[in-house]
Amino acid sequence: MLILGIESSCDECAAALVADGTRLLAQKIASQIPIHSPYGGVVPELASRDHIRKIVPVIEKTFAQAGLEPRECDGIAVTAGPGLIGSLLVGVMAAKALAWSLEKPLVGVNHLQAHLRVIFLEREFPYPHVGLVVSGGHTSLFVVEGPDRLKPLGRTLDDAAGEAFDKVAKLLGLSYPGGVSIERAAAGGDPRAIDFPRPMPGKRLDFSFSGLKTAAAVRVKQAGAPAAGALSDFAASFQEAVVDTLVKKTIAATRREKLSRILVAGGVAANRRLRAKLEVGARAEGFEVAFPSISLCTDNAAMVAAVGDSMLKTGRDDGMQLDANAGLSWDVT
Ligand code: KG4
Ligand code: ZN
User: Fold this and answer.
1) For residue 272, which ligand has an atom nearest its CA?
2) 179: Cβ below 6 Å to ligand 1?
3) How far apart are CA 273 and CA 191, in angstroms?
4) pLDDT of residue 6 exceeding 90
């Protein structure tokens, strides 16, 4: 089965063609980083307007890259939520128009489920496993019981980890996306230089990053933005606090659920410090940990096509009833 995936839930406008749910044939991702950079975060209105400009060329270029015609795909999968409603609507409307004109089945995909599926484009990873989705909009722990079964264990009660990176980067005058620039600024810095709080260190599997963000803001307010020499220590210490919290909760979740495999996905999963510390933490417990390649951690449409493949195989067709849902939860797929 050849599936066209479309993703427009936030600030990436992406299309991909995936065969049999596992083989990525072609993909195109139009990034909006230059548009949102001056604001230090995604501006929803600007995001949806740019999606409108890019969505058709992105889909056309994806088919051209694969050397295929739109009528040759067997179905269409589009992110239906969660995400920014204006952005989601552009992808959903494009997908509906295409499905209607080509007379192809159409399914709406949950963005979190898609992040947790992308690894299967690169390797096998047995079920059940603990899944951590950590991105600009989400920090959520699940038991991934099977391809279409997610049991939620915990989530952030306020900011997502990526959002904390983005906001603190803005505070430090670093460029968007903040996670990338904080990781870069942290190189060579001392992660123990500043003792930032490790939020919610208790037994619950929920997260909270707003206190950590405030601690960073208070420090900048009191002492001013760190000068060139101190910036790497500040960035490394902040990054360490986020990473320690993610590692601790993920290991605790895996122990509590008596599982031995961990999958990490989403934009923050690209962070090398997180990858290294979770590897070490998992190894100490005898757990196996898997991360998608860095390029597949951030938003893409290959992950959407991969989930769409298994949904379409069940005979499902959301057709013209499909609607975008900004608050779509994990179980409404
Ligand atoms: O998955 P994603 O592309 O979009 C959402 O679904 O939110 O994640 C984007 C987030 C941004 O907050 C960005 O700062 C963060 O992922 N991010 C990183 C890194 N690369 C992207 N955070 C930490 N380290 C990175 N290397
Ligand atoms: Zn995402």
Assistant:
1) 1
2) yes
3) 10
4) yes
Closest CA to 309 of 149, 150, 147, 124: 147
| pTM of the entire predicted model | 0.95
The response to whether residue 180 sits with its C-beta less than 6 Å from ligand 1 reads yes
Is residue 292 in contact with ligand 1, taking CB distance under 6 Å? no
From the CB of residue 316, how many other CB atoms can be counted at a distance below 10 Å? 16
Q: Domains, the chain, ranges and CATH?
A: 2-117+299-321 (3.30.420.40), 125-291 (3.30.420.40)
Ligand closest to Cα of 137 equals 1
If you measure from the C-alpha of residue 325 to the centroid of ligand 2, how many angstroms do you get, rounded to a whole number? 15
Q: Give the position of tokens 């779509």.
A: 328
Instruction: Give, as residue ranges, everything with CB less than 5 Å from ion ligand 2.
Output: 135, 299
Q: Is the pLDDT of residue 201 over 80?
A: no
pLDDT in tens, 286-300: 999 999 999 999 999
Per 3-state DSSP, what percentage of the chain is helix, strand, and coil (rounded to 5)?
50, 20, 30
Q: Which ligand is nearest to the CA of 42?
A: 1
Residue bearing the CA closest to ligand 1, atom 26? 271
**DSSP category for residue 235:** H
The rounded distance, in Å, linking the Cα atoms of 229 and 227 is 6
